[in-house]
Design a protein that fits this description.
Length: about 220
């Protein structure tokens, strides 16, 4: 099971028991994704629970996600948005994989949130640019970024434009299994994650905190 960085299996089990039970379709998405070769890409259950609380704190009605995979994080968010806003809720879901998102579509449908999700299959920067051009700047409450790390800066800039004041953007994997703290690691993904962390820390447009939830979750609130 994917879990937060550095936690023992006992602590992961304690967290699972302490949090509200997963929606049955979320539990099935997690279980079935474990059989896939790229299963470690899925967020942890405790991260999903955290994201649901963030969505509720924001009273989020409109959200975007970059990096859908088999749909766990999008389903977690959509369930809470639907609970608060019914059919008015909207989740823009960006990915490039027909194969993985076909599974996500099945889970969204089975959980009754299929009508809320607008899946766009093309490089996410293009989709976000289209939404900005369509006049959606400032229209989103929440964004979750969990895709190619070298694209994070472009998603940060586009996401900030799309968010309303007080809206929140979450960046996954910012600790990169600890590799960001290894100065010898100068691979493009690690460099991109370090550059984003430095930029966000100095950026007056946001109030941000880097946390060790999951594989590191950078929380940015738009000022
Ligand atoms: C780590 S997985 C996302 C995991 C997902 N959030 C979950 O909860 O299971 C990363 C996803 O990003 C997608 N991706 C990679 N590059 C992309 C790009 N340029 N634009 C949109 N999606 C991309 C991949 O196809 C993959 O599904």
């Amino acid at each position: 099971m994917s879990s937060s960085l550095g936690l023992s299996s006992d602590v992961v089990a304690y967290l699972a028991a302490a949090n509200p039970p997963e929606h049955p379709v979320l539990a099935r998405c997690r279980a079935e994704t474990q059989a896939l070769p790229m299963a470690q890409m899925q967020i942890s259950a405790e991260q999903g629970a955290f994201m649901q609380v963030v969505a509720r704190m924001l009273h989020a009605k409109r959200a975007f996600e970059v990096g859908v995979f088999t749909g766990y994080s999008s389903l977690a968010t959509a369930l809470v948005m639907q609970d608060m806003h019914g059919k008015q809720a909207r989740l823009l879901a960006c990915d490039v994989s027909e194969e993985w998102t076909a599974k996500a579509r099945g889970y969204w449908s089975d959980a009754g949130v299929g009508d809320l999700v607008d899946l766009q299959l093309r490089p996410a920067a293009e989709t976000l640019d289209q939404r900005i051009a369509a006049g959606e700047a400032g229209a989103y409450d929440l964004g979750f970024i969990d895709a190619d790390k070298t694209g994070y800066d472009s998603y940060y800039e586009r996401g900030l434009t799309l968010l309303r004041q007080g809206g929140v953007m979450l960046f996954d994997n910012v600790l990169w299994s600890g590799r960001v703290a290894d100065p010898k690691d100068t691979t493009p993904d690690t460099l991109a994650l370090r550059a984003l962390a430095g930029k966000v820390k100095a950026d007056p447009r946001v109030h941000a905190a880097m946390t060790n939830i999951g594989d590191g979750l950078l929380i940015c609130v738009k000022r």
